[in-house]
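User: Okay, second chain of the day. Same drill as before: sequence in, structure tokens out.
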Amino acid sequence: MNSTSNPLQHSVLPSPFRSEPLRVDRLMGIRRDCDELSSVPTRAGDLPDQGRNRPRPRWRESLDLMERYITVGKRKIKTHDEIYMCGQPFDTLYLINSGLCKIVSLTSDGRERSADFFFDGDWLGFDGIPTGHHSCTAVALDIGELWTVRYSTLMLASSREPELLRGVLAAISGQLARNRDIALSIGTLSAEARVADFLLQWAQSLAERGRRTDQINIHMSRAEIGNFLGLRLESVSRSLSKLAHCGVIAFNEKGRRDISIPDLAALSHFIQNDADSLNTVLQ
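Assistant: Same drill. Structure tokens below.
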């Protein structure tokens, strides 16, 4: 396996991660999530009717809270639009009502690196809170709409409405947990399992939002995936080929970026088996 050196492996992950079974808790969580998602349709024609009594999914919580308590601005976005730039003064938060976005950070040698991806119901802009300036750049990967709110307005409304404050804190906590999971994946899994984990997280995000996973477009080249996961282009290509050979993904006829994931649980089991094998080697 050829992979580039990744600073996360040295600066983020301390040695205790190496002495314990790798990612078992998280992978068990993925299995539970996949079981919960087993009833989510993979084809658009299988989508169920939305009954009035159907509970709102978790990703809708921030959108619902904002509709209830705050008058938001609305901003249409197109593919490649920059939402905010690294170093720009921070005063506004963005909630994705529709669309897909990524944040890009700069490495120590000045190269851009995709740091995370955001779907409907996700917040953008929390990185600007600590210093008053954005520490990364946010870019749209698809057409959509953002809801905008000034940070001062949100804080004032949250001081009056505890439910809104709990929702904002839950969103921040969720992003911190996701960043931890990304660091764990990069620091502890093989190339094939990293790519599988990336695809699984993408598919789960779609499935949670009631979208199909039998035909997904990840909006990224293989070089960009490798940049995100700390892998060389050829390692990403070999990993995708192996996943296809194992039957956990398939390439659609339209293009190599269009991927089918027929069974989310099977993909999570592939990752678990990889972690178990690595644990056996390290013990």
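The longest strand covers residues 92-98.

User: Thanks, on to the next one.
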